[in-house]
């Protein structure tokens, strides 16, 4: 794929073009990444897919770190199932779609709220969320130009996700920065997808581990409470887990094709067929996935230090930064707890009493005993006939 200039043909700085779906523009704080196939998507065209000599040292670093990652097989044992898998929220609401990182963070925030949003309809996007979406769109536009390309099949749809990742990695290695990078992986045989807000290469020459960053916008000029910071940490740790898993292991392509019932030999639409600078040609979904796997092998694991940035929505001033270390054991427990909910292995629970202030901001509070009981009223009983499935 070629490059396009930002304003004129003779301008030196080139802005990569990315294919992104309309869903992904709303993924920040509110929407679910990769929730549905769109008729139109966008493709990122970064520098030609030919890496500079630093890629060799990055590969060496990656190989030295293969054994340091944590496997999801090491997760603690699950609790006894309360229902069959066919009755689970995963099958009922995310079948053939997989879970997004937003699904996990929303479940950690309050699994009862997540249950209500599935059974009664999705959460409403409020003014603060819209402001956050707009801010992230602006940050994305600083480094990426979006164009629309019509996709004709599920194979096309997933191919463009992989191509976005490949070209985003090219931009990261050539320019030291990329944003809104789609990432796809598995946790306990469950497909998990996300969009990494920002990735930077370290300034130190001997450090090749990409730094994962997420920017949160605040309606108030104050830092968030600990439960909000904890939720943001979970999000970034999930991204690091997905990134490190892709770097350390071959992408399970057969498992991916089977999971979605995709035809790996499906011929892609003309807009998605690519020939890279190093001679690699991709005309089928299988070609793109192999290209994706080869790209992942060239990368180093993400940096163990992760960064959350908090901005004031009014003027985009920096309120503070939360630098924290990756905690694989804590992450395992959090993912396990969330998956138990999605797999039907545990009931949804209300938020702890010390965090019941969350209820005041929940659109489902009138249906929830955690809120109505605290008001001295009786919570209405659920009736399956009154529940509209989304």
Automatic annotation (TrEMBL):
It comes from the Eukaryota. One of its GO terms (molecular function) is single-stranded DNA 5'-3' DNA exonuclease activity. Keywords: Exonuclease, Hydrolase, Nuclease. One of its GO terms (cellular component) is nucleus. One of its GO terms (biological process) is interstrand cross-link repair. Pfam families: Exo5. Belongs to the EXO5 family. This is Exonuclease V, chloroplastic.
């Amino acid at each position: 794929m070629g490059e396009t200039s930002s304003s004129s043909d003779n301008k030196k700085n080139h802005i990569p073009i990315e294919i992104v779906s309309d869903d992904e523009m709303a993924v920040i704080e509110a929407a679910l990444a990769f929730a549905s196939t769109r008729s139109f998507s966008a493709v990122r065209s970064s520098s030609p897919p030919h890496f500079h000599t630093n890629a060799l040292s990055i590969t060496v670093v990656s190989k030295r770190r293969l054994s340091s990652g944590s496997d999801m097989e090491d997760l603690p044992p699950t609790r006894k199932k309360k229902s069959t898998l066919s009755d689970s929220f995963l099958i009922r609401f995310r079948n053939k779609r997989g879970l997004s990182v937003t699904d996990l963070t929303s479940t950690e925030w309050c699994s009862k709220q997540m249950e209500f949003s599935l059974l009664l309809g999705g959460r409403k996007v409020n003014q603060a969320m819209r402001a956050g979406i707009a801010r992230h769109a602006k940050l994305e536009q600083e480094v990426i130009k979006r164009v629309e390309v019509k996709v004709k099949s599920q194979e096309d749809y997933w191919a463009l996700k992989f191509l976005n990742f490949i070209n985003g990695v090219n931009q990261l290695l050539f320019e030291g920065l990329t944003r809104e990078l789609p990432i796809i992986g598995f946790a306990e045989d469950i497909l998990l997808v996300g969009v990494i807000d920002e990735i930077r290469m370290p300034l130190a020459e001997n450090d090749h581990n990409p730094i994962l960053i997420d920017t949160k916008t605040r309606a108030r000029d104050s830092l968030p409470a600990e439960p909000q910071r904890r939720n943001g940490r979970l999000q970034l740790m999930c991204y690091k887990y997905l990134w490190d898993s892709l770097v350390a292991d071959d992408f399970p392509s057969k498992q991916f094709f089977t999971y979605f019932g995709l035809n790996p030999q499906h011929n892609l639409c003309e807009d998605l067929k690519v020939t890279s600078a190093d001679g690699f040609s991709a005309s089928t979904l299988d070609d793109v996935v192999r290209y994706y796997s080869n790209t992942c092998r060239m990368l180093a694991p993400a940096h163990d230090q992760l960064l959350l940035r908090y901005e004031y929505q009014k003027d985009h001033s920096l309120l503070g930064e939360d630098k924290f270390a990756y905690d694989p054991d804590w992450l395992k427990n959090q993912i396990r707890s969330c998956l138990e909910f999605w797999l039907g292995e545990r009931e949804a629970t209300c938020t702890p009493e010390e965090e019941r202030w969350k209820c005041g901001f929940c659109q489902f509070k009138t249906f929830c005993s955690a809120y109505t009981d605290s008001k001295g009223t009786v919570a209405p009983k659920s009736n399956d006939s009154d529940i509209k499935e989304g």
